[in-house]
């Protein structure tokens, strides 16, 4: 793929991934075919900051976990008063990392 | 979510659930009232969908099935969940198998993609929540 396109993509989405994944993603994108770009851009990725805000407001009901696709854990949080209130607070600190991980998993599906 | 992290998470929270329950069983004989750990209730004063579950389980342990269902039907589901989760997770960890993880992923997929199943469940939880608010738990 064209280097300028890849760099534009990396600039736009750099906060969606863990710092140590960025170089690997860039290398993989450069090797990819141009036709895959549309697919890559249509991947449903979540903004970690947005998920953090949701987690602070609705984390008690597991809404943050539902949004990033961890439905099972979301149900567990919903049915237990946010894991007795502990899990809600733990997730305020964990959810951004988990969101970046989920984004990485989703984009990986299109890169091979 | 990767298997090992899920197992650590769930085992930790199942154990804290048991500790919380055990403490309440021991404490209730002294005070007769359970304290709240619910953030939502502490902030807004309104109960959340699962408020009253501990009291429901305590009523159930005293053999009071009808009152337990009236308090919060989630109590019995959560008690069953606590028992099954603890046994299944420990069995899986001892045998180094991932049977729980596979069923977890299957259920998760079903809930996320099968709207005929998930929408009624959402309505059940919502109606239980409204019932909780009306009851003033």
Task: Give the tags.
heterodimer; A: 112 residues; mainly alpha; 71% helix; 0% strand; elongated; B: 137 residues
Tell me what the structure shows:
The complex is a heterodimer of chains A (112) and B (137). Chain A has 112 residues and is mainly alpha-helical. Chain A contains eight helices and no strands. Chain A has helices at 3-13, 22-31, 36-41, 48-58, 63-68, 71-79, 81-84, 86-108. The mean pLDDT of chain A is 85. By secondary structure, chain B is mainly α. Chain B has one domain (3-135). Chain B has seven helices and no strands. Chain B has helices spanning 3-31, 39-44, 53-61, 65-71, 74-95, 99-113, 115-135. The longest helix of chain B is centred in the N-terminal third of the chain and has 29 residues, at 3-31. Classes of the chains: A mainly alpha (112), B mainly alpha (137). The A-B interface holds A 60-61, 69-73, 75-76, 78-88, 98 and B 1, 6, 9-10, 13, 16-17, 20, 37-40, 48-51, 53, 74, 77-78, 81, 104, 107-108, 111-112, 125.
């Amino acid at each position: 793929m064209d280097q300028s396109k890849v760099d534009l993509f990396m600039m736009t989405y750099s906060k969606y991934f863990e710092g140590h994944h960025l170089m690997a993603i860039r290398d993989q994108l450069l090797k990819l075919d141009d036709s895959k770009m549309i697919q890559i851009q249509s991947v449903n990725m979540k903004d970690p900051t947005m998920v953090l805000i949701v987690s602070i407001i609705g984390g008690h009901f597991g809404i943050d976990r539902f949004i990033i696709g961890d439905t099972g854990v979301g149900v567990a949080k919903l049915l237990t008063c946010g894991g007795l209130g502990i899990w809600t607070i733990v997730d305020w600190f964990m959810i951004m990392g988990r969101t970046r991980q989920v984004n990485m998993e989703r984009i990986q599906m299109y890169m091979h | 979510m990767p298997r090992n992290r899920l197992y650590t998470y769930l085992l930790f929270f199942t154990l804290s659930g048991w500790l919380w329950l055990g403490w309440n069983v021991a404490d209730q004989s002294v005070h007769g009232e359970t304290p709240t750990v619910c953030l939502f209730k502490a902030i807004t004063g309104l109960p959340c969908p699962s408020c009253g579950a501990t009291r429901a389980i305590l009523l159930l342990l005293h053999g009071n099935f009808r009152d337990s269902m009236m308090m919060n039907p989630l109590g019995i589901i959560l008690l069953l969940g606590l028992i099954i989760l603890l046994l299944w997770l420990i069995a899986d960890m001892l045998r180094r198998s991932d049977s729980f993880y596979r069923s977890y992923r299957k259920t998760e997929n079903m809930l996320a993609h099968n709207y005929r199943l998930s929408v009624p469940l959402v309505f059940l939880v919502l109606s239980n929540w409204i019932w909780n608010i009306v009851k003033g738990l």
